[in-house]
Design a protein that fits this description.
With 289 residues, the protein is an alpha/beta fold. Helices cover 27% and strands 16% of the residues. The protein has a nine-stranded mixed β-sheet with strand order 1-2-3-4-5-6-7-9-8, sandwiched between helices. Mean pLDDT is 88; it is low at 276-289.
Length: 289
Amino acid sequence: MNWRTTWRHHARTVLELVRLRDLPTTIVLWTGPSALDVTPIMLIASRVAEPSQNRKTGDMIQVSIMRQDMPPADAWRIGADGAVCPAACSHRSRARGGRGTCYVNKVRLTTTWQAARREMLAGRIGVPPFLFARARVRMGMEGDPAAVPVAVIAPVLEAAGAWTGYSAAWRTLPDAWKRYVMASCDTPEDAIEAMSKGWRPFASSTSLEMDAEYQAAGLTLCDAERPTAKTCAACLRCNGAGRHPSSPTPRTTARPGAYLPIHGAIGSRYRKKADPRAAADLLALPAAP
């Protein structure tokens, strides 16, 4: 029995408490000012009623952070993505001075934004965090978790017990975030700095040379890139500094961070341009501990 089958029975019981008969497709978990620039934003859970079709992540409840007033594609085009994407993210929109290499297809998020906005305007906001017990949660399908108070996100992730999450704002976030998200890094120097400050890094790589530097720093290749590729839902390594969900006790040593060849429609072209040899086989690396 997979997690969703078990979770569905639990979720229906919880929803009866809030007088909802069926699992909604989209839930607005919270609304409020962005911690990045005070713009009104929404914390949204999608793929609630049906399995996610994302081949890399596998079946996970997808949690996004979006502006209330415009869909992600519009915000990206005009450089208004600062409400959900910190200035520290080098992949932010070109209109805002970034590289424009975000792997998220913003246009595909329009339907999710529209559904969430309808829920928000109808006043259907918030559910008990324990709704997500036994679920697998991907925090940040769109947007950086740093835009939302940790006090809002923590109960959802603690209830689930199985999640992934990343933040490019790790240099300025309180230590409480270290348990929940990986430090999103662009260079080996970033990764080393993050580790020195107690963060587990997840880094993007633009060349084979950079791959080798990450390995030397102790990072391991993302399991999605290995011959026996795992989905994020099966792997769950990227859950910050907390213990792995499959481990009954905390580890006495820090788990290693991970790196991934930069991907997405623009990012993958960027890597190939930066390093023509990037198509070489990266899959013979030792498995992560």
